[in-house]
Amino acid sequence: MEFSDAKQKFIQSWGALGSQWGINKTMAQIHAFLMISPESVSMEEIMDELKISRGNASMNLRALIDWGIVYKDYKQGERREYFYAEKDLDEMAIKISRERTKREIKPALKVLKEVSSIPANKTTKEKHFKQQTTSLYKFVAKADNALEKITEYNDNWLGKLLKKLIT
């Protein structure tokens, strides 16, 4: 397989995976392209490589910056902006986990807490509903807590040591 074919296959595959971690295909493709680029890349280069419009590129770059996995770079003497992706895969995974928690888990917890707090002293269906939603709330809260602990470990020396021992 030639380099250009391998590069395109990677970008396309990463784009398809994007929907599994909460972003759209184009956003994931831009991220993939920036991840494998050895230097920062201009928006025009991104548009040319992925055959996308300026508006699409701009909107998705802004979102990737908001996620904390893409950064702006300014080159002296250049008017255009350049972009590069987080290269540290551990750091990228932590940032994605934190963002997904904020966007997906926290809102789900809020809803589960609300719906499980209804009084359930009337029918069997109400009691069952309360029991199931309360159990689900507790489970998701534990998972959220565990995820928070894992991402916090990366920020301290003990966590880094434990992570090295595990991997």
TrEMBL record:
Protein known as: HTH-type transcriptional regulator
SUPFAM superfamilies, A to Z: Winged helix' DNA-binding domain (SSF46785)
Keyword DNA-binding: yes
Family: Belongs to the GbsR family.
Keyword Transcription: yes
Domain HTH arsR-type: from-to ranges: 29-72
Domain of life per record: Bacteria
Alphabetized UniProt keyword annotations: DNA-binding, Transcription, Transcription regulation
